[in-house]
Amino acid sequence: MTQPITTIYDPQVPTLLMALHPKATTAVLSGHKIVEFRKRFFPQAFQAFVYTTGRGVQFFMRCDAAHQGTPATLAKFGNMMQHDTFAATMGYFQDKTSGLAIPITATYRLAHTVTLPDLRAVVPTVTIPRGYLRLDQPERADLLTFLTQQPYNLQRQVDWQRRQPMVQALFS
After folding, report:
1. How many beta carbons lie within 10 A of that of residue 160, not counting itself?
2. Burial readout 10-34 (b: 16 or more C-beta within 10 A, e: otherwise)
3. pTM, entire model
4. Which residue of 59, 75, 83, 129 has the fewest C-beta atoms within 10 A of its own C-beta?
5. pLDDT tens sequence across 6-36
6. Residues 22 and 55: beta-carbon distance below 8 Å
7. In CATH, what is the architecture of 3-69+100-169?
8. Strands 67-69 and 56-63
9. pLDDT in tens, 72-100
């Protein structure tokens, strides 16, 4: 049974459009990826429509506020939470002194992929951001309305409550 995103959308939470590569999208939707690492990003809790590179918007997700830490702390966190290799996460942050770990709390797979031409039919000048684009701005109201009307048919919740002691141990 499908329902529109409007049934779960929270207008009080910042709403973003962001992009992920196909491999990351697959990992998020399967539940294997529950943390998104970024060198810099939106630090508050947010909800986002996720554009899969080369495909389109495939899901909507909710995320908690980002945890900031050193690359070593973030690599340890990635290993504990989703079995990332320590070396791979360290490699991602290379010569950075800090970065962000963004906990993914829920995902909602859209019933149909919304392609870039679909988005441009609503807003001809829309581009997919490298970082993120705030959708909850007055000038983007048409795009936000269009996306929140999209139906979803699969959802996944992530239980961060049981992981909280590990999070506090690393980031307190």
Report:
1. 15
2. eeeeebbbbbbeeeebebbbeeebb
3. 0.95
4. 83
5. 999 999 999 999 999 999 999 999 999 999 9
6. yes
7. Roll (3.10)
8. unpaired
9. 999 999 999 999 999 999 999 999 999 99
